[in-house]
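REQUEST FORM: STRUCTURE PREDICTION
Request ID: SP-0412
Submitted by: Lab K.M.
Chain count: 1
Length (residues): 73
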Amino acid sequence: MKNVSDIIHIGELIAVSKVFQLNTFRMITLLENGLMEVFENKEAFLEKYGEKETYDELDWCELNNGKIFTKPK
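STATUS: Completed
RESULT:
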């Protein structure tokens, strides 16, 4: 895992932590352990997970800048 601060802005971290109802420390831990993913754009997300009607295996959040955060359910 890259340095979290190189790929995530603090504002993104706070916004997504509220969506996933996690504190920011827990979210960083999940990112560092590879249990949460960050995709720079929707194309990268679709490349990994494919285009589906629903993604039952994960929770995901798309920000207005195009980044997508995922975590397993």
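NOTES: Residues 4-72 form one domain.
Reviewed by: T.R.
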